[in-house]
Write a structure and sequence with these properties.
The chain is an alpha+beta fold. The chain has one domain (about 5-140). The protein contains 4 helices and 7 strands; from the N terminus they run H-E-E-H-E-E-E-H-E-E-H. The strands form 2 sheets. It has a 4-stranded mixed beta sheet. Strands 3-4-5 form a 3-stranded antiparallel beta sheet. Helix 3 (about 90-100) packs antiparallel against helix 4. The model has no long low-confidence stretch (mean pLDDT about 90).
Length: about 140
C-alpha cells in the first residue's frame, strides 16, 4: 500500500464510533450523520427485516488494518459501507465479537437510550474470525 493509497483510506475512515452498556453487555455503536440515520429509519421502521453484515479487511502487511463494514438491509434498498481504521478501533471489534450486536445511532441521540437501531449478528463465528485476522494484521506493526 503506497503512502497515497494509505492517505486515501485514512480520509475515508468513519470517526463516529462509540459503545454503550446494554443489559451488562458492551455494544459497539456507529454514529451516522443525522440525515443518513433518519433516511434509514424512515425506510425500515416497523418492517420485519434482516441486515446482512460483512467485514472486508484491508491490510498492508506493515501493521495498517482497515475494516470496511458493509450493511445490506433486506428492506428499503439500503446498503451502507463504513470504513474503520482497526488500529484505532480494536476495542470496537472486540465488543462486536463478544456481543454479536451492532448499534446504529445519530449524533443527537442519547446513545444507548433513544434513536438506536440494533442489529443482531447472525454468525458470531465470522466476527471472531475477522477479529483474529485484524489482530494478526496489527501484530505486523510490532
Amino acid at each position: 500500500m503506497s503512502d497515497d493509497e494509505l492517505k486515501k483510506l485514512m480520509d475515508r475512515v468513519h470517526v463516529g464510533v462509540t459503545s454503550f452498556n446494554y443489559n451488562g453487555i458492551g455494544v459497539p455503536c456507529l454514529i451516522l450523520a443525522e440525515k443518513k440515520f433518519d433516511d434509514i429509519m424512515a425506510k425500515v421502521a416497523g418492517k420485519p427485516l434482516s441486515v446482512d453484515t460483512n467485514l472486508n479487511i484491508l491490510q498492508d502487511g506493515l501493521g495498517h488494518v482497515f475494516v470496511e463494514i458493509v450493511l445490506t438491509f433486506s428492506e428499503g434498498g439500503i446498503e451502507e459501507s463504513i470504513l474503520l481504521y482497526a488500529n484505532e478501533s480494536l476495542s470496537f471489534f472486540e465488543s462486536l465479537a463478544s456481543s454479536s450486536m451492532l448499534a446504529l445511532s445519530s449524533p443527537h441521540s442519547q446513545v444507548g437510550k433513544d434513536n438506536v437501531f440494533m442489529i443482531q449478528l447472525p454468525r458470531p463465528e465470522k466476527i471472531t474470525n475477522a477479529l483474529d485476522i485484524i489482530k494478526k494484521g496489527l501484530e505486523a506493526k510490532k
